[in-house]
Amino acid sequence: MKFREWLGSRWPLFSAILLVGAFVRLKGLGAESLWLDEAWTWGLVRDGAATLLDRLAHHDAHPPLYFLIVRIFTSLFGASEAVLRLPSALAGIAALPLLYRFASRIGDKETGLLAMLLLAISPFHVFFSQESRSYALLLLLCLASLDLLFGLRTAPSRGRWAGFAALTAGIMLTHYMGAFFILSEAAVAALLFRDRPGFLRELALSLAGSLVLYLPWLPTALTHMAGIDRGFWIPKPTWPILGVALYNLVSHVYHPGVPRAALAVLPFYLLLILVPLRDRRRETLALLLLFALPIAGEFLVSMRRPVFYTRTFLHVLIPLWTLAARGAFLLPRRYAWAAAVFLSVGLAPSTLFLHRTAEKEDFRGAAALLESTSAPDERIVVQEGFVAMGLDYYSPRLDRVLRVDSGTLLSPGTPRADIEREIRGSAAGVWLVFRYGQDGGWPAALASDFERQGAWKSAGIEVHYLRRRAVK
Description:
- By secondary structure, the chain is of the alpha/beta class.
- The protein has two domains: 3-30 and 61-354, no CATH class; 363-468.
- It has helices spanning 3-7, 11-26, 36-45, 49-59, 65-77, 81-106, 109-120, 123-128, 135-152, 158-172, 178-192, 199-214, 218-226, 239-250, 258-278, 282-301, 317-328, 333-354, 363-373, 389-394, 416-426, 442-445; strands at residues 379-382, 401-403, 429-435, 450-458, 461-468.
- It has a five-stranded mixed sheet with strand order 2-1-3-5-4, with helices on one face.
- Helix 2 packs parallel to helix 7 (109-120), helix 9 runs parallel beside helix 11 and helix 15 crosses helix 17 (317-328).
- It starts with a helix and ends with a strand.
């Protein structure tokens, strides 16, 4: 059956939603500066696949699939901000029709369309579809895997099970926190296995196949896992942190005050709770598990090792939007479309806000300032040293950059004591670059020889100029 025939009379609305979703993900894709993590992505992929794998193994804590894809794009089209973010944008767009199909399995075609619309204008998903990191790809692979799993319980196929094995390996090769999604899928399979004899045995064989595919990366993964809490900045989660995470999943952009924030997300979570009261099918319970288990898993594990990070369970938007859409169309027909409009209108302002507000750190502006203003006899001190990756991208020829302690993938760091001796002995002035007010105590440490003359701040990046005091 042709795709348009399968959609029937819904194809114009489907096409309009897809165009809207593509527009908000591609609009201004290269407009903002790369922030620190995105500059790190560039540093990983800039020198070829072999170097990329070595850097991931020794200087990073992520698996390789997403970065290999980005490497292919940059080798073909260059390494502009837009190209670095394009794989995420395409993954975000590709998820839209796939969610339509999956949500249609759970409800009907109207449920599929509304779930697709909610994802299309989801501010959290749009944001990470415009970021050169692996989260949008993780959601796409999880969604493809889930759609296959729900189809395989009624229609066995060796080819599809092989595809499921490849997707499972792909999830783990995209982000280690995908393991919580895979465990949730196993729980769903245990819930739904009665639909077909042999389903669990076939699932076990497919998962074994995914492990075989993953084996080449497994030693590196174990090394990464063993060192995940060394210097890791994520704090142990608390109940307020969990509340912020649930808010961000829906709205992402902060509303002023707790009451307004709660009102912005409450309808979606009410539907998450109320839908199972009206729809008692096992598929609905399965969606609840797919939403709750990854969040609970990361939360509990983080009591020992810090891994709770909202973006790493971005894939829970799949059950969240599916259940929200299902809940709207469980209402009497005269209210269903009104509920659909209400849910969509609730998301739209935050998505529009994303395109009006710069949220990424402004290394581009900092580099332009330093290139145009710093003098040859002045030094540029970056606190901490890895922050210099953003300057490496925008000002590759800018010398005089001293990276405190830790270096970047491209340049070594220098011990702080050595930097202090150098700038006290020879520098006419010092430019101090840091993030979010974390100046490392440098202005106070240099106060006897230098005085602050001015500061530049933009989107989390600060550049302070310290001039040598005049000799009396």
